[in-house]
Design a protein that fits this description.
CATH class: Alpha Beta
Number of helices: 13
Number of domains: 1
Helix content: 25-40%
CATH architecture: 3-Layer(aba) Sandwich
Shape: globular
Order of helices and strands: EHEHHHEEHHEHEHHEHEHHH
Length: about 290
């Protein structure tokens, strides 16, 4: 099994563990985009699990749901019918993150939730000048309020994701342990490279996370080794297993840390949180 390596123009960032990804534009607050244009790779599960666990560890976290499907919002039990300000308001310039953020019902974790109206934002953004920086402008004012901002991106490389990359200091890329998700890596890397070249030279890949690992199959191990060949520094040591408990948790409006904290999936995400704290240079929990 092979996947085309990234070209020299698409080369990955320096070792992220050696260079914490913080945003000089937001007073040093790291902004982490969780992104992959392939759906069903565990992107939202990763966003929600890590955000909740970091908050449980004592950090102040803001999670912004940038996916029109609103799965991150639903996974945290947010009633989307009661929302006053949403991610849509950020994207059309009607509100800032400080206005739209609301408590998630968990200490230390706020969320800018979304609804299906966000789908219209990409159409409306076409007529806005400097449209790639709408989210970056909406984040002004969060300095000092949070230790980390997380962006749960949609499964596409459209304007919403480009806005996330322009506003972010780093990207976390979840990849399902199957062959087809590998094929989109080059396109994702190309988009990140273009954003770095034209919009956000500070952007780095903080890490590549292998998800839905099935120890019973050779394919999972082969995919991990294939990714390690091209992303040896970016690949997280943690591998997220395929788990029915991870799949069940969102239907209860809970993260895996709340639904079954002793499950294999929860333990794996707890290890990932430890790696993230180190790579992003986040405050060490007491």
């Amino acid at each position: 099994m092979t996947v085309s390596p990234p070209s020299s123009q698409q080369s990955t960032s320096p070792n992220p563990a050696a260079r914490p990804a913080t945003s000089s534009r937001l007073g040093g607050v790291p902004v982490l985009a969780v992104a992959n244009q392939k759906g069903g790779v565990g992107k939202t599960t990763t966003s929600v699990a890590t955000a909740v666990m970091l908050a449980q560890a004592g950090l102040r976290v803001l999670l912004i749901d940038l996916d029109p499907q609103g799965n991150a919002s639903s996974s945290l039990g947010i009633d989307k019918s009661s929302l006053v300000r949403t991610t849509y308001d950020l994207m059309i310039g009607r509100a800032r993150a400080t206005d739209a953020a609301r408590p998630s019902g968990r200490d230390g974790l706020d969320i800018v939730a979304t609804s299906s109206s966000l789908a219209a934002a990409e159409i409306e953004l076409v007529d806005i000048d400097d449209r790639e920086r709408q989210l970056q402008r909406a984040l002004v004012g969060i300095e000092g309020r949070y230790d980390l901002v997380m962006l749960d991106c949609p499964p596409s490389l459209g304007l919403l994701t480009v806005n996330a990359f322009t506003a972010a200091s780093s990207v976390l890329v979840p990849i399902q342990c199957e062959f087809l998700p590998l094929e989109g890596l080059t396109q994702l890397q190309r988009t990140i490279g273009q954003v770095r070249q034209h919009l956000n030279p500070e952007l780095v890949i903080t890490g590549v996370l292998m998800t839905m690992y099935d120890a019973r199959t050779r394919l999972s191990a082969q995919v991990v080794e294939e990714v390690r060949r091209f992303y040896p520094k970016e690949l997280f040591a943690t591998v997220i297993p395929r788990s029915i408990r991870l799949a069940e948790a969102p239907s209860y409006g809970l993260s895996i840390a709340e639904y079954d904290p002793k499950s294999n999936g929860a333990v794996a995400y707890q290890r990932l949180v430890g790696e993230l704290i180190q790579r992003l240079g986040l405050p060490t929990p007491a």
